[in-house]
Amino acid sequence: QVQLGESGGGLVQAGGSLRLSCTVPGRTFSNYAMGWFRQAPGKEREFVAVIRRNPGSVYYADSVEGRFTISRDNDRNTVNLQMNSLKPEDTAVYYCAGGVAVVADNPRTYDYWGQGTQVTVSS
Questions:
Q1: What is the mean pLDDT of the chain?
Q2: Partners of 82 in beta bridges
Q3: Positive or negative, the Cα torsion across 3, 72, 52, 44?
């Protein structure tokens, strides 16, 4: 069982930035597509971004396109989410997820999940 570990959440004012990181133990990280999802109170979990295996193509939700950037470092088994120009509506618990054969925005197709990290954006 692969355990994912997120870090980097916190409280930030609107317009600010945060950088989330997710570490994946083991030697098979490069085999996984890695995604970020988020879930706000009372809402369903929603897709944020995904980065494929080599060559690492990316895809974003419309709500974060142009503000968030997903990247991966296969040498460090890490996937990052740089979040800029944050808005109060970005407030949620953010989850890292990985899978071998994922459909980008379908959480059911991801095999492994982290515990989540809270991001709160104040107005």
A1: 94
A2: 19, 69
A3: positive
- The one-letter amino acid at 99: G
Count of CB atoms situated within 10 Å of the CB of 55:
5
Tell me, what DSSP letter sits at residue 74? Answer: T
Note the pLDDT of residue 54.
73
Q: Which two tokens stand for residue 122?
A: 């104040």
Contact yes or no for 117/9 (Cβ under 8 A):
yes
Q: Provide the 8-state DSSP code for 27.
A: S
C-alpha–C-alpha distance, residues 15 and 6, integer Å:
22
Query: How far is Cα 11 from Cα 120, in angstroms, rounded to an integer?
Result: 5
Q: Read off the DSSP letter of residue 4.
A: B
- Radius of gyration (Cα) for the chain, nearest Å? 13
Residues in contact with 83: Cβ distance below 8 Å, sequence separation at least 6, in sequence order: 17, 18, 19, 20, 64, 67, 68, 90, 119
Is 44 strand, coil or helix? Answer: coil
Q: What integer pLDDT is reported at residue 29 of this predicted model?
A: 86
Q: How far is CA 87 from the centre of its chain?
A: 17
